[in-house]
Write a structure and sequence with these properties.
The complex is a heterodimer. Chain A is an alpha/beta fold. Chain A contains nine helices and five strands, in the order E-H-E-H-E-H-E-H-E-H-H-H-H-H. In chain A, helix 3 links the parallel strand 3 and strand 4 (79-84). Classes of the chains: A alpha/beta, B alpha+beta. Chain A binds chain B through residues 85-90, 107, 109, 112, 128-130, 132-133, 159, 161-166, 169, 173, and chain B through 459, 462, 465-466, 469-470, 473-474, 478, 480-485, 487-489, 491-492, 501-503, 505-506, 508, 510-511, 546.
Chain lengths: 212, 614
């Protein structure tokens, strides 16, 4: 089986080396590059293909969302994962809008880190109740009569997650498998990215910045 | 130039036209000279009577105005060719106050009123009579005019002989300006007076309106008397008294009006004026007709002087406080006074322009004063309107200020609430994270902790911080998601410990807003409880259920199937009092039960929960 190629973009050397070690120690993973700042990261993305990008938002020379945007644009099939200390909604949401498909907390244990990456590659995306709540708000239909970007089932899933139910519990409540729930969530992530892009196009169009 | 001044000039020009004879006429011409005879009441006076020549118009007055006088005017003219060949010719007499009879070559051709002792004529209208062509003869013709008069003036204001078609317009013109105009003037005076009286009635403080109303009404009645051409001789004294009363009633209020307009409120002088006004009619009634000559000459002259005095004061005032209305009133009043003087002299038999004119001047003055008073009325309306606008603006300003200060107050309140909340969270972090870090530091410095213990205490510190961040949230805290986040974070640890963590939030609405401080207390309690379960319960399953059945009370229940309260109470002893304290701070309570494991219940009220100090 092919190894999962991983790139780390992180300015903090301690964390970078710890994560590097964990990845190297894992048989199914291959560390194909590390970058300590945004410029290096953009160069690396140009030069090196990977399945997983772990990106820190707080880079010294640029906003991490720029790196996320570049990576997800060049490798649409890859998982771009934002690495954050607190998993707070503001950072995670802007990352998802930039194209991230998941986030990892920096204090995860080695096993959790490996499990999370595997789960991401298997099609899952972690999502906390607070993030779920924010996603519901961001992807709300413009009016009650209209259909928003989310399907009824997706809304249902997000509502249950926002109340604290786990993927397993959501699956049980909705009589679907936990795996189905995770792929729904990943879809929702993609929808937010698309939604925010189309909103940007709409806004730009309105301002006359784009000619279609 | 003011409208009123235009009107004045217009009247002046008309009067001038009237005095100089109006239109140019071809055939008609005034007779320049007459023979005058006083007395001879019986029959036609013979040619050798004591006639004396007078130029026409004549100015003849008598010193005895109250006895009936008979006067004769004898005029000679040459009959024109046209008159003899059948064209209608006429005699036109512009002004002769007496009851007249007209003879042509000894034949009576006209009669205004027969000579009588019973009536007193005061005839102000012009006359016109046709000359019967049968009575005309070639060469010289003689017109004989007989008049019966009471009054000072025995004057004949001219006499014209000419084609009827030329004299009629002249006659009608005179008729209009002397009689119709006086009637119009009377009507105007009464109307203007009544209107002003109504204004004054509603605004008693504005004495000017009242004075003007009285003067105007008196003028209206005064000039209406022109229709009374024959006064019964028995009422003659009363008539003269009425005449003085009307004249004074017109002049005295006007004098006071002009004084008041000049800001002169001389009450004693005004009383004196009132006395002067009433002195003439009362004096005449008490003392009899003997005083008439005196009153007609001196009392009226006194009125003129008083009026001139008031106008002088008013002129000085207007010069000091110029206003277009003031000048207009002054000009119109001077014009009227001059006309009044003319009439006064004319009445005494002294002809200046040969016609009465006051009835033309007074409307101009009434117009000017009406204009001035209306102006004032409109100005005071404008002031009121302006005041309304100012008041409205001020009100709007006040409202704006009020709204602003309300806004500020709300801002302060919000700021204060936020500051209090911040203070609460800072002191919470101080007690929680702060003391945790201190004890961790002590642990590490003692060298008592291995890497695993250090990692554990640091992890606890991070958990503590996450809890605060969840509680604070970017928007108003949503308690359910924050509690869910706690579960989401702790889930890997439970699965690592082999404890199944069940969650039931289906009894809750979608979100539940709570202040960050209160939310933090709830999160702490749940975290503490779950940590206890994780560390001490040795349970296989723990279920957390959240419910708010009636929407007023929140119920959090954590139930495990572990070893129960007795054995883990000692281990978690220091945690329980803190949890109870937090529950109390929420206005709620903590209940513990131990039956086949441990069950912790937290109840607290929603909405009114005071997140208060610990």
């Amino acid at each position: 089986m092919d190894q999962t190629r991983i790139v780390i973009v992180e300015d903090e050397p301690e964390f970078r080396s710890r994560v590097s070690e964990i990845i190297r120690a894992e048989a199914g993973f291959a560390l194909v590059g590390t970058a300590g700042n945004g410029a290096e990261a953009l160069a690396l993305i140009e030069a090196t293909a990977a399945e997983v990008f772990l990106v820190d938002l707080g880079l010294p020379d640029m906003d991490g969302t720029r790196v996320i945007r570049a990576a997800s644009a060049r490798y649409p099939e890859a998982d771009v994962v934002v690495v954050t200390v607190f998993g707070d909604d503001r950072h995670v949401l802007s990352s998802i809008e930039a194209g991230a498909t998941g986030y990892l907390l920096k204090d995860l244990s080695a096993e959790d880190l490996v499990r999370s990456i595997r789960s991401l590659r298997a099609g899952g995306s972690p999502i906390s109740p607070v993030i779920a709540r924010r996603l519901l708000q961001r992807l709300r239909p413009p009016s009650p009569a209209e259909e928003g970007p989310l399907s009824a089932r997706e809304r249902e899933i997000l509502q249950l997650i926002a109340k604290g139910f786990s993927f397993d519990e959501v699956g049980g409540l909705l009589s679907i498998s936990a795996h189905t729930v995770t792929s729904h969530v990943k879809n929702i992530y993609r929808k937010l990215a698309v939604h925010s892009r189309s909103e940007a196009v709409y806004e730009a169009n309105k301002l006359g910045m784009l000619r279609l | 130039m003011k409208p009123t001044s235009w009107a004045c000039s217009g009247f002046s020009l008309l009067l001038l036209a009237l005095a100089t004879g109006g239109f140019a006429t071809e055939g008609a011409m005034p007779i320049a000279e007459a023979q005058f005879l006083q007395g001879h009441p019986q029959g036609l006076p013979p040619a050798d009577a004591p006639w004396r020549p007078v130029p026409l118009p004549s100015s003849i007055r008598t010193e005895d105005p109250d006895s009936l006088q008979t006067v004769w005017y004898r005029l000679a003219f040459h009959a024109p060719e046209a008159a003899l060949s059948g064209e209608p010719f006429a005699v036109y007499i512009p002004s002769f106050f007496c009851a007249l009879t007209l003879y042509l070559n000894g034949n009576r051709i006209g009669l205004v009123a027969p000579p009588s002792e019973a009536y007193h004529p005061r005839i102000k209208r012009p006359h016109q009579f046709l000359l019967p062509d049968s009575l005309l003869r070639p060469g010289e013709n003689i017109l004989l005019l007989r008049g019966e008069c009471r009054g000072f003036s025995l004057s004949l204001g001219g006499i014209w002989v000419g084609p009827e078609r030329e004299l009629t317009p002249r006659f009608e013109e005179r008729q209009f300006w002397q009689i119709t105009a006086a009637k119009i003037s009377s009507t105007l005076g009464i109307l203007a007076g009544a209107a002003m009286l109504m204004v004054w009635w509603r605004r008693r403080k504005e004495v000017s309106y009242g004075l003007f109303a009285v003067a105007s009404l008196f003028w209206g009645v005064h000039s209406a008397t022109i229709v009374l051409e024959f006064i019964p001789a028995s009422l003659w004294t009363e008539w003269r008294a009425l005449y003085y009363f009307l004249t004074g009633g017109f002049c005295i209020p006007l004098i006071v009006f002009f004084l008041r307009e000049s800001q002169r409120r001389w009450l004693w002088f005004e009383r004196l004026l009132l006395a002067y006004w009433l002195a003439a009619p009362l004096g005449l009634l008490l003392l009899g007709l003997r005083e008439r000559a005196f009153l007609d000459i001196y009392w009226l002259a006194g009125l003129f002087l008083l009026m001139l005095l008031a106008l002088g004061i008013f002129a000085a005032h207007t010069l000091r406080h110029p206003s277009s209305a003031g000048y207009a009133m002054l000009a119109a009043a001077v014009f009227a006074v001059l006309l009044g003087l003319n009439d006064y002299l004319f009445n005494l038999g002294i002809s200046v322009v040969g016609a009465f004119g006051l009835h033309l001047g007074v409307p101009a003055m009434l117009l000017a004063i009406t204009w001035a008073l209306t102006n004032r009325f409109v100005q005071s309306l404008a002031v009121v309107e302006n005041m309304n606008v100012v008041l409205e603006t001020q009100l709007a300003e006040r409202e704006g200020e009020l709204a602003q200060s309300y806004h500020l107050l709300r801002g302060f309140e919000r700021q204060q609430a936020m500051a209090e909340e911040r203070q609460r969270i800072v002191s919470d972090m101080h007690d929680g994270l702060g003391s945790h870090l201190i004890s961790s530091l002590a642990l590490v410095e003692r060298g008592a902790a291995g890497a695993k213990e250090v990692a554990e205490v640091l992890r606890q510190g991070i958990d503590e911080l996450r809890l605060v961040i969840d509680a604070l949230g970017p928007e108003k805290g949503d308690l359910i998601s924050a509690l869910g986040n706690l579960r989401f974070r702790l889930a890997p640890r439970f699965s690592a410990a082999g404890i199944s963590l069940r969650w039931d939030a289906s009894g809750l609405q979608d979100s539940l807003e709570m202040s960050p401080g209160a939310g933090l207390q709830v999160l702490r309690i749940l975290q503490e409880t779950l940590t206890n379960v994780l560390k001490h319960s040795r349970a296989g399953t723990v279920s957390v259920s959240l419910a708010a059945p009636d929407g007023r009370e929140f119920h959090l229940r954590v139930k495990d199937d572990g070893v129960g309260l007795q054995s883990n109470l000692a281990a978690s002893g220091h945690g329980l009092p803190g949890m109870r304290r937090r529950a109390e701070a929420l206005g709620g309570r903590l209940e513990l039960a131990s039956e086949g494991g441990t069950t912790v219940h937290l109840f607290f009220p929603l909405g009114g929960a005071d997140p208060g100090a610990h």
